[in-house]
## 1
Amino acid sequence: MRVLEPWVTDPLAEFLRESAARLALVMTSSGQVIAQHGFTRSVDVMSAASLGAGILATTDELARQLQASAGFGAVVHQGGRQGVWLSGFDTPRGRWIALVVFGPESSVGLVRLFFARFATQLAAAAPALVPVRDVLAEGFERELDDSLRNLFGAH
Amino acid sequence: MARVDAERHELTATIVVYGAPKAGKTAILHCIQDRVTPERRGDISPFGSDPGVATMLDWLPLELGVIAGWRTRVHLYAIPDQRHADVTRRLVLADADGVLFAADAQAVRLAENLTALRSLADNLDDADGRHRDVPTVYLYTKCDLPPELLLTTGALNRELNTHAHPSFACSALRGEGVLEGLHAVISMVMRQFAPAKPRAG
């Protein structure tokens, strides 16, 4: 498992253990990957993330046009050997998306059951958000100038 | 909005290169890649395979280094032209901290520029329809073409840049004006994250 936000590790590990999912991808609504498990070179994480975010955005737009006020909960594709669960969920860091691939050792029901718990645990584990404004301290202007000079080199 | 990782003390801002089809968005990204310090950038990662056209999304990561104790990065995205990419456009702009608006300086392309500007405004609105004010810099592209084909910077500003954002005439082929525009938009974006200066008096 690889995670960008360390506080995601424990809830995700528990979800994977309980649901017996094969692959999992947690990302922001714009497809930025937060955590992934089980992806190998044969399954490109970035493509899966952007496609997953695109599918969910399309589904949300469809719900909006159909005036489904609560939106659609999740998108599930059930194949012969494996299934895909794709769902948006709210976190203290905004709306995130999870893409879960499961095999015959699991089921849609199991994934749905433990996914709800995962979302709750994730919300509880999220550390307080640092306000974006005022992150950079005094001395900022000089250091910004230095950084831009280094970035642009001789130009 | 910018990504702040308090544990690692890292800040990542997103700047989107937006504009009308064929206004030179991908060329701008390549110009930047060719001209910034190589150690301070990654490589352009295209999603799609059609040469010369931003079929899905082009991404160029830039490393600003440590500013006020924070490791700071800028991710540059070129938004695709295709109509079917509306969802991608909206998703990427939802996270945008700044915009480089590429407007083709040719007089015959003015209508396309205005359409792209309206689409930018629509896509910057949040889910509730509220307008999001994002630091924006205008790049008037293809200024290496014969002057009789081009509108002047003043005329382009009157037609397109009604809020008087910084603007630069540029040629991505010659590498003129692009880095100046990038410098301006990065400075504007990063200043959003700095404490407001105390007012004099």
## 2
Amino acid sequence: MLFKNVNDVQTRMEQAGYIPSPEISTIVFLAQETQKPVLIEGPAGVGKTELAKSIAACLERQMIRLQCYEGLDESKALYEWAYAKQLLYTQMLKEKINDVISDTASLAQAVDEIARHEDAFFSDRFLQTRPLLSAITSKDPVVLLIDEVDKSDPEFEAFLLELLSDFQVTIPELGTIAAQSRPFVVLTSNNYRDMSDALKRRCIHLYIDYPAIETEKEIVRLKIPGIEERLLDKVVQTVARIRELDLKKKPCISETLDWARSLMILQQDEITEAVISRTLNTLCKHKTDYGVVRANIGQLIKA
Amino acid sequence: MVNLILKFVSCCRAADMRISTAEVIDCLGQLAFMDTCGEPLFQTILRANFAKSRREQGIFNRLYHLFFHEMQSGLNPESVFPEKTQAGQPPAPEPGMTELLRQFKERPDDAFFTKNQGDTLDRALMEFLGGSPLPFIAEVQKIHTQDEQASPLFRSNLGQLSSRLEIMLRINRLKTRMVQFLGAHDAWVNKDVRSVTAALNRRLDKALEFLNTDPRPDNAGLRETGSHTLHYKTLGQIPFSNLTPEEIKAVKEIIDKLVRKLEEISSRRFSAASRGMVDVKKTIQRSVKYLGVPLEIVHKARPLRKGKIVALCDVSGSVWSTARFMLNILYSLKTCFSRVKSHVFIERPFDVTSFFMSHDANEAIKRILNDTRINYNARTDYGMAFQQFRDHHFQELDKKTTLIIIGDARSNYFNPRESLLEAMRNRCRRLIWLNPEQEKFWGTGDSEMLKYRDHCNEARACGNLNQLMAFIETLVL
């Protein structure tokens, strides 16, 4: 069921376990109404992918995900012919093919006869659909998540332009395939490189930053219902201070949740230097980051 | 409403934001979707359509505040924010402001406005006073992008400063004229006129503030890593500029080892990734061996997807010690990239790629140092080097190129021209700045590093072996 208004987005997303800011709710509603893709920027771990999942859950749609990386091309993102299957079929149907061309008088006639049947080998049966084609050929509308689009090559970005503006693709052997239903498209970017103006023009832009302390508390409360208020306050404050340090990877929301859970399992209700040291591996994922946090541990406790 | 949005868009474009007509249409369409449009919602919709990256949001917010909160004339607040009547709403225009401005402009005794009609700048300031900031924003933008004279005899950083000073003087002159105008027309000096004059003075102060605050993009995606693995405890920590000849030899050996290791890893990775689509032609050819049965499926080898590198190295003083190691590594690893081009500069860039093409890296570095065409006694001027690079080598940058700048960003107080760095960033895939100085010295004295950092995709200190190894591993792997 579609969102009725911005407040409806807010309420239903919260029910689905995602706490959106008013800005996020507005953009999601506008994207639905205008059928435009949303380009989400923000540091890793602030809930960009999670937002797409929540939208899919709220709209009761299937989510199709395309993970981008350097070297991603159409054969991995859109479609590929099952060449091996086609070759095996030609071998198995050799006799039948011989029958088809047995009555022909010349080579040219034989080729024409084969050409009349080539649809049999370039049909849906031999087409391996990849996420983008699956999303636009799906009868029911889906949520299409194109994750980390900044990691893809400029060629792939250019290819996306056609898809995102017309929601159709052209397969030479089959013709143009238009979307049966327009997917709700979410693109995410970690700012590894700047996206082209052409791509940005086709999208509504949304920037998600690390949540404010109160929002992060709400998220932890929602995900870990039994957490004590005093511990919650200390956990969130400490993580916020750790994020200010010069780290290779700043702790994201899921790491805050992991840390809070670990502290609860270990039955710690105070955050001391020793506690941080022992549980640091739930927050930091780089050896050098351990060193930086340990060097500033006093500050984290004192502040 | 449409006119208002269009005026705002014109201001954004004057400040070098790229907003297309399609985006304006989208924005107006989205505003129409909303039943009620409070200011936060209005601002969200405008920002989502006009500022399409975090970098642009800071500039957008600044212009939004100026246009919708400071320039209240010509803006009917009720039409934009219908349900808002309290704080945060743009103040209503001062009554009589337009009339006072008209009289001020048409003073018969003011030769300045009657004879020449003022020049572009005066007209821009008068329009700013009248509530239309567009021409003034365009004038300020000109300052940010104006070129310095590339004279070989005399160079100065005064181009931008003098333009800025000129506007400041005009603003002050306008203020003085306003006072004179009121003095000469005693009848006007009543309570209403004083409040209008105060409002006009506030606007002139805003114009000054706008002029003197440089727009700084929010560089949210900046990779800035101060911490790194300590590969070598002693040798790895010594700044390149302090290495003894024996230590240099040891560092070179370590770099050679690193290069071999990286080449091996990278070639393994590419060979694994090169399995592409099925090569039908070759598969059919091979099937002949098996009586026509395609038992052996052959895949097309995908061309290696490797980046192009353009290095721009400051070769003055202590920076050269880092630049030489960096160039050495880059050319030793040239098989890992599809193209490596390098330029050295002190005041202007000089293409040294050919040295590395015809000699091994160490020999090439020796020859560069002895090349008489490079004036090693000149004073470093980053702004001029960037300007010359833009004029002569910009075509080398494309969306597959990683531009690596190696320099301490100490520009001898010459104009830093950071807008040129932004232009380079927009042309290439990634812009990485390696600074041989540690972070705590960035921005001190004549260092322009904090300004340049706002325009880089990655900025890191790279003054010793450990830092160089950490960087080169992330670049290749």
